[in-house]
Specification:
It is built from 17 helices and 14 strands. The relative contact order is 0.12. The longest helix is centred in the middle third of the chain and has 17 residues, at about 150-165. Helix 5 links the parallel strand 3 and strand 4 (about 95-100). With about 400 residues, the protein is an alpha/beta fold. The chain has three domains: about 5-50 and about 155-315, Rossmann fold (3-Layer(aba) Sandwich); about 50-140, 3-Layer(aba) Sandwich (Rossmann fold), CATH 3.40.50.1100; about 320-400, ACT domain (Alpha-Beta Plaits). The strands form three sheets. A six-stranded mixed beta sheet has the order 1-2-10-7-8-9, sandwiched between helices.
Amino acid sequence: MVSLSDIQAAADAIKDALAPTPLLRSVTLSQVTGAEIYLKFENLQFTASFKERGALNKLQRLSEAERGAGVIAMSAGNHAQAVARHAGMLGIEATIVMPRDTPYVKVRNTEAFGATVVLEGESLTEAADKAAALSTEKNLTFIHPYDDPAIIAGQGTIGLEMLAEVPALDAVLVPVGGGGLISGIGVAAKALNPGIQVIGVEAARYPCVTAALSGEDALAGGATIAEGIAVKRPGALTLQIIRDKVDDLQIVTEAQIERAISLLIAIEKTVVEGAGAVGLAAILAEPDRFKGRKVGIVLSGGNIDTRLLAAVLMRDLVNQGQIAQLRLTIPDRPGALAQVAVCIGEAGGNILEVQHNRLFSETQVKEADLELALEGRDHRHIHRIVDALSAEGFAVRLLDPFDDCD
């Protein structure tokens, strides 16, 4: 098992290469949620993820023979970049096996650090099988992303830093996939503050630790914005530590994760990936549970694909009622479209997209369907624009936004 002394030794080993990240109280998020929220900005690491801590601690402990032969890892991206970066700095050749659907930004960054990337499999499990085969074939040391005492100890240095800054934290919310991060933080936090509550947060589509603790097979799978914790089973060692050190687990939906990402950008001006946002998502989902308590949230990483981030932000504007879709039936005559545009403009709305359909429509031959993507100040403003269009005699319908994903 991993002990506090192992984590303290890891902190000493990595201190010259990795500076502590900030732990800052969020005034606005505290006001919004009713909890006293402290954010641990691991997304400010050089590779934008906490994974550097464990990877460096593990690599520094390799023998000269192991360093000479090279290392191999499997990862959805953050562990890959961490191993690639620090292996390169230590003069160790690294091969990284990544699932084929890994976001391109993570593949590109991993290669930029000098590692050889192999894209294999549809999941981390399949990538792990390929990495194991290459490890045997080429005599490479396998650097596991979470189920390794040195990796766990490295990640646990986050707990040391958080409790050094705010010893009286009531709870800490930690993303959970394979369990390396929460295992390390759990060991450190419970040793320094036995009364602290350590809570793991899982994505609803990958509740692998919740299932494992119940002795069940996880019904895990499918696309998730939190691909960094999209793991189908935790490690054997991490599960042992979780049983001993973690007080509770909470599951959050895709929609809750998206909302947390958007809030962190809007309020804190910081970019986090899906896995990094689950701690805040947990508070947003159950605010009464954390009200009045000092809560630390680990923003575990910030490597989100820019196209995906743009989609999340725009979808949030839809969900918050600032962007809406309208469908109108208008006369098919000159000036009708201009009349709609003038009415919307005078009401203070902004037209983002227009689809004018004459041919593929169920309307009469002298009418046309018009669909508009419309921006307003908020949902009340959107409804005032709809009322203005109705007053002009247009048959208008406000379409419901897309349903929240489970």
